[in-house]
Specification:
The complex is a heterodimer of chains A (479) and B (379).
Chain A lengths: L1 H7 L18 H14 L4 E6 L11 H17 L3 E4 L5 E6 L2 H4 L4 H13 L11 E5 L5 H13 L19 H13 L2 H4 E9 L7 H4 E10 L8 H6 L3 H24 L3 H9 L3 E4 L2 H4 L2 H13 L3 E5 L1 H6 L1 H14 L2 E7 L1 H6 L9 E5 L2 H6 L6 H9 L4 E4 L4 H10 L3 E2 L2 H13 L9 H9 L3 H4 L27
Parallel strand pairs in A: 6-7, 7-8, 8-9, 9-10, 10-11, 11-12
Antiparallel strand pairs in A: 1-3, 1-4, 2-3, 5-6, 5-12
Helix pairs in contact in A: 2-6, 3-5, 7-11, 11-14, 21-22
Chain B lengths: L4 H18 L3 E6 L11 H11 L9 E4 L5 E5 L4 H15 L10 H4 E6 L3 H7 L17 H13 L6 E12 L8 E13 L1 H8 L9 H18 L3 H4 L5 E4 L2 H4 L2 H9 L2 H4 L2 E5 L1 H6 L1 H13 L3 E5 L3 H6 L2 H4 L3 E5 L2 H5 L1 H7 L5 E5 L4 H9 L4 E2 L2 H4 L1
Classes of the chains: A alpha/beta (479), B alpha/beta (379).
Chain lengths: 479, 379
């Protein structure tokens, strides 16, 4: 499927722009003016700030801003207030409510605070952290510091704001036509990318490099090389268009894999040499297609092990179809993998009940925070899946590895390992002085000729061990 | 009644399509001769049943259709008050031939439909017709056609495709000893929706709107916006009581819904139930949770619709936080009702749909299910 490829290649998930909320460049000036006036006469003055800037990327999404703004404005109408959208996308509500009408809880603004905290419960583990509520006549210090901090920082707005699934108005016929053409004609062989997942041995006496062994090789399609126009990438933020588009590309991907297997090409050779399973994301429709049957026959004959990754939404929407797919995969000896799953999905679904062979879990700090409670729903869900079935995906830091390790997860995938593998390759590569680490990562990821151009030792690119290299071996086959 | 049954079924389909396209008001009756118990299926019983239908021959523009398994359908124009009464009385008389307790309820043998609103139900009955010639799979839309359709729907007059159906409360009546002898029903809320089948037939007759499920889901967002604009006329929503509408998560968080919310009298917010489909909930779970919490903070209630038992077992239903779970009666539910009932979180009400026969209603009530929808309840 396409999603993983998009994320891995760092394609912005949506077009830039705050989707209907142009940043008011004078907003912070207005805040400073307002603050000055209110701090001069703080009696009965209340300020509520919703710190949307504290949400982790890709948030704040446009619906966060739109809905929160409506709620704040509602409150402003009832409480003689005023709303400002700040340059960093925080929202500030200024109210003036006579003390005798505030009650213990400061009335409408306090209710609003509770409502906002409920809204953001799926976005941050501690939504209260997003909201500041100050009574200026009691303690103006924190508000004063907040305003001072803003004027010092003058943070530019984040440039990627994603709306809710498919929030965009009908995509233009032009962009949809372009999508259809890309699905039919894009040079797929050049767009195939790979990433090697690693298995971490529990033996802590060894150095990290010695504990990590290649575990699987993920193949997917990335459109980064096509340098798509923003209008196209925006259209692909609609999950339904993305599913449709991915299904079209899957058919072609299967043909590429089939042809590679038949010709004993590089994709299959690299996997077979390292005895590594190949993981491929496919739609249910693609798995049930004749193209999959043809490809799987060749893969089985070649002794290639495969794991097929199915999107959770598709798996859930037609469980009968999923059972059919499971039978097909069983017959071929392939693994059924569910993913990628984030914390919000794990809140709503119990993947263990779908009996997958493996689950790809997307690392994020909010996910780690949500799983901090060993008795919480997310922790329970992970245990129910079985930690040996989990692959932690999107691992971009040592912190993520440590988190996974501490929980007993042993398979990982992400940029952190891509870089470690590249560093190990470069340590043993005579051409390395002419390359950067980033170039080595990018070339190893790409399976196309153009994407690997510039490497003087391309045989090394398919090696994925973290330890020193003496040649172009793959992994050792252990998982 | 001269041609083969497959042709008769096709002719009936055409009548139903025309009724939907033209918005022409018709009445239809389907006599399920295949549901007659053996003791009532003797040749003279069947002859009497057919003769009973003869009373409707005099109704305005009456058309008869012979279907598979001996079933007979009649479509006519007027409400058919006196003729219909005669038919029902004749059939009651036929049933009275049976000993008490063995006769099926009349409602199990006869289905009545108001067209065009309930045309889709009668179409469902025709799915099994022409088994030797299953209809070819519809050609799906492509994305360019989708874009054209979205643009057309923004302007089109969709009033003729707007439909409603009612969720009913099922109330066991009578003394406790005969608790299930009689079941009363009362309407609880009305669901508004667009007849997608008719819409597709009118706008893209050579394509199946649902043939590509992902493009169809996307198209529903445009339909959401049109539904909201239809309901944004205050005089149209005043006095209708509780109302159910299907919306996508993206719609709830979009500007059209915020405008709708702004225009809706505060007292009516609690009277709107928003139906959400599983695919939409799972397409973007974080947005769903945000939308759910926002809608609830504004007083709306939420229903999960279209999730069958296997999916309900996979979802963490308490965490999903719906006020209602709407699921269709199916053999797996009838075989293990406690499995379903054990899944329903406290504070969530189950709505059983697909109650198409009187026996379905009795089954639902006997398992403590208090809300339902189906053909047997629409009569």
């Amino acid at each position: 499927m396409l999603e993983a490829g998009l994320a891995r290649q760092g394609i912005p998930p949506t077009a830039p722009g705050a989707a209907g909320f142009p940043v008011n460049l004078g907003a912070d000036r207005a805040l400073a003016d307002m603050a000055e006036r209110w701090l001069r006469a703080p009696q009965d003055k209340l300020v509520l700030v919703l710190h949307l800037s504290r949400l982790a990327a890709p948030a704040p999404r446009s619906h966060h801003m739109r809905v929160a703004r409506v709620l704040l404005q509602d409150c402003a109408q009832r409480a003689n207030g005023h709303v400002l959208v700040l340059q960093n996308q925080d929202l500030a509500l200024f109210c003036s409510i006579p003390r005798d009408q505030q009650g213990d809880s400061a009335g409408a603004p306090a209710q609003l605070k509770a409502t906002l905290a409920r809204l953001f419960v799926a976005d941050v583990p501690d939504p209260a952290r997003l909201i500041s509520f100050w009574r200026l006549d009691e303690d103006p210090g924190p508000f004063r510091a907040y305003v001072a901090g803003l004027s010092g920082a003058s943070a530019p707005p984040k440039d990627a704001k994603q709306g809710p699934a498919g929030e965009t108005m009908p995509a233009s016929a032009l962009s949809l036509a372009a999508l259809e053409e890309i699905a039919a004609q894009a040079p797929l062989a050049e767009l195939i990318v790979q990433q090697t997942g690693m298995a971490l041995s529990p033996d802590r006496k060894l150095a990290l490099a010695d504990r990590l062994k290649p575990s699987f090789r993920q193949l997917g399609v990335s459109l980064a090389a096509l340098n798509l126009r923003p209008v196209i990438t925006e259209a692909l933020t609609d999950p339904y268009l993305l599913h449709h588009f991915s299904a079209r590309l899957d058919t072609r991907l299967l043909r590429v894999l089939h042809d590679d297997l038949r010709a004993e090409g590089r994709l299959s050779r690299a996997a077979l040499r390292g005895n590594l399973p190949i993981h491929v994301g496919l739609s249910l429709e693609a798995i049930l297609s004749p193209g999959f049957a043809r490809m799987s026959r060749l893969a089985c004959a070649a002794g290639l092990r495969m794991g097929i990754e199915v999107p959770m939404m598709q798996a859930c929407v037609d469980l009968e179809l999923l059972d059919h797919v499971r039978s097909l995969l069983d017959l071929a000896g392939f693994e059924l993998i569910l993913g990628p799953l984030d914390a919000a999905t794990l809140t709503l679904v119990q993947p263990a009940k779908l009996l997958p062979d493996a689950v790809k879990l997307v690392w994020s700090q909010p996910m780690a925070d949500a799983a901090a409670d060993p008795n919480g729903g997310l922790s329970t869900s992970l245990v129910a899946i079985g930690l040996n079935r989990i692959v932690l995906q999107g691992v971009d830091s040592e912190q993520a590895v440590a988190w996974g390790q501490a929980r007993g997860i042993s398979r990982f995938q992400g940029a952190f390992f891509d870089h470690a593998q590249a560093a190990a390759r470069m340590a043993g590569c005579p051409g390395a002085p002419a390359c950067t680490l980033r170039q080595c990562v990018g070339r190893a990821s790409s399976q196309g000729i153009a994407g690997r151009a510039g490497c003087t030792n391309p045989a090394l690119l398919d090696t994925a061990s973290i330890g020193p290299h003496s040649g172009p071996q793959g992994g050792d086959g252990r998982q | 009644m001269s041609t083969a049954r497959g042709d008769q079924a096709e002719a009936l389909r055409e009548v139903l399509r025309q009724s939907e396209l033209a918005g022409a008001s018709r009445r239809a009756l389907l006599l399920h001769i295949d549901r007659f118990p053996p003791s009532l299926a003797k040749p003279h019983h069947l002859r009497l049943a057919r003769e009973a239908l003869g009373s409707l021959a005099g109704a305005d523009r009456a058309q008869f259709f012979e279907l598979s398994r001996g079933r007979i359908a009649i479509v006519w124009r007027s409400r058919g008050g006196s003729e219909l009464t005669q038919v029902m009385e004749s059939l009651e008389l036929l049933l009275s031939d049976q000993p008490d307790g063995e006769a099926p309820a009349l409602g199990e043998l006869v289905s009545l439909y108001d067209l065009p609103q309930q045309a889709v139900w009668l179409l469902d009955e025709l799915i099994e017709e022409s088994p030797g010639h299953p209809p070819p799979p519809a050609t799906p839309l492509d994305v360019q056609q989708l874009a054209g359709l979205e643009a057309a729907l923004v302007q089109a007059d969709l009033a003729q495709y707007a439909r409603w159906r009612t969720i009913m409360r099922l109330i066991p009546a009578g003394p406790p000893s005969a608790r299930l002898a009689r079941i009363e029903t009362e309407p609880v809320w009305e669901e508004r929706y667009f007849a997608v089948h008719a819409l597709g037939a009118a706008l893209t007759p050579d394509r199946g709107l649902k043939a590509d499920p992902w493009l169809f889901r996307r198209l529903t967002r445009t339909l959401d916006r049109r539904m909201l604009s239809m309901l944004s006329v205050p005089k149209d929503v005043q006095g209708i009581g509780t109302l159910g509408i299907s919306l996508n998560v993206a719609t709830i968080l979009g500007p059209d819904f915020l405008r709708f919310d702004d225009a809706l009298p505060v007292s009516l917010r609690g009277a709107v139930i928003i139906n959400i489909r599983p695919a939409d909930m799972l397409a973007d779970p974080a947005s769903f949770q945000f939308a759910r919490n926002f809608a609830r903070s504004r007083g709306y209630r939420l229903a999960l619709v279209g999730a069958a038992l296997p999916l309900l077992q996979v979802l963490d239903l308490p965490a999903c936080g719906f006020n209602y779970l709407q699921t269709k009666l199916a053999p797996d539910i009838m075989a293990a009702p406690d499995t379903l009932l054990g899944l329903i979180p406290a504070g969530t009400d189950l709505v059983m749909t697909g109650l198409d026969r009187a026996s379905d209603i009795r089954w639902a009530v006997s398992h403590g299910i208090a809300l339902g929808r189906g053909r047997a309840l629409a009569r």
